[in-house]
Amino acid sequence: MSTSLSASSLNESAGATTPVASLVTGALVLATLIVLAPVFSHLPKAVLGAVIIDAVVFGMIDIAELRRLHRVTPFDFWVAVAAIIGVLSAGVLAGVVIGVVLSLGWLVYVATRPPMPLLGREPGTQVFRDLGENPGDETFSGIAVVRLDGGLFFATAEALEDRIREVTENSPQARALVLDLEGVDFVDSQGAAKLSEIHRLTQADGVTLRLARVKPPVLNVLRAAGTLELIGSDHIHGNVNRAIEAQLADGETTGPPPGGHAAAGAS
């Protein structure tokens, strides 16, 4: 009798912070049944309904927070709306389950589809940025630069291969691919195996694969899996600019740039 939705809301509104509040609530309910029941029996049901409506609607539905969610992340707003509908239509547990399932589904979707943008170099610097956001940045003839923004593991390995295939197919004259792994904090055995497959794939297409900004934990996994030996330590670079310079020094880049314009000095 003291753990219903309305009772919980009233308890919170009263400032309850510890389980002692539930004991006090239970004692008051017993006292009410014994002493005040005859008095409360004369209250119209509309009055009791108004108390519950006020507690639930104005005490538990945070309109300001819903507005903030809609402004910051619309998906979170719709998850909250779905949870509210679930609570009102099927009960508290159903609403909580709906919110949890939708949130976990979104988490899986985001985790398995990390961004993998093409990069270009900011003019006059060694900074490489997303070409989609900075279309005026420098690109290099025959060299495509791709950044993986997320972990490389069993759930993202296929997505990376698909992205590499897309880049190479859309850039038939590309002679080198630089994979920026700055955003990769974790790689598992399947991720390392997928990098080996990508190396063989690019090699079959006559494209040189280079890795840039590989973090030590990721490098250790690649070394243990034999991927580092397959790709070659001379194709692992401290940053993207060094990878570009090494490729240009090898004289292996020919043809037009893989999207965008060629930078000064590119062959």
Overall description:
This protein is α/β, with parallel strands linked by helices and 267 residues long. The chain folds into two domains: 5-112, no CATH class; 119-250, STAS domain (Transcription Regulator spoIIAA, 2-Layer Sandwich). It is built from eleven helices and six strands. It has helices spanning 5-13, 20-40, 45-60, 63-72, 74-90, 92-112, 157-170, 189-204, 216-225, 227-231, 240-250, and strands at 119-121, 128-130, 143-147, 176-180, 208-212, 236-237. It has a four-stranded parallel beta sheet with strand order 3-4-5-6. Strands 1-2 form a two-stranded antiparallel sheet. A hairpin with a 6-residue loop joins β1 (119-121) and β2. α1 packs across α3 (45-60) and α7 (157-170) packs parallel to α8 (189-204). It is elongated.
Query: How many separate domains?
Result: 2
Helix coverage percent: 55-70%
Fraction of residues in β-strands: 5-15%
Q: List the strand order in the largest sheet.
A: 3-4-5-6
Structural class: alpha/beta
Major sheet: size, sense and barrel closure?
Answer: 4 strands, parallel
Sketch the topology as an H/E string, one letter per element. Answer: HHHHHHEEEHEHEHHEH
Entry keywords:
alpha/beta, disordered C terminus, Transcription Regulator spoIIAA, about 270 residues, two-stranded antiparallel sheet
Explain the layout of strands and helices.
Layout: H1 5-13, H2 20-40, H3 45-60, H4 63-72, H5 74-90, H6 92-112, E1 119-121, E2 128-130, E3 143-147, H7 157-170, E4 176-180, H8 189-204, E5 208-212, H9 216-225, H10 227-231, E6 236-237, H11 240-250
Parallel strand pairs: 3-4, 4-5, 5-6
Antiparallel strand pairs: 1-2
Helix pairs in contact: 1-3, 4-5, 5-6, 7-8
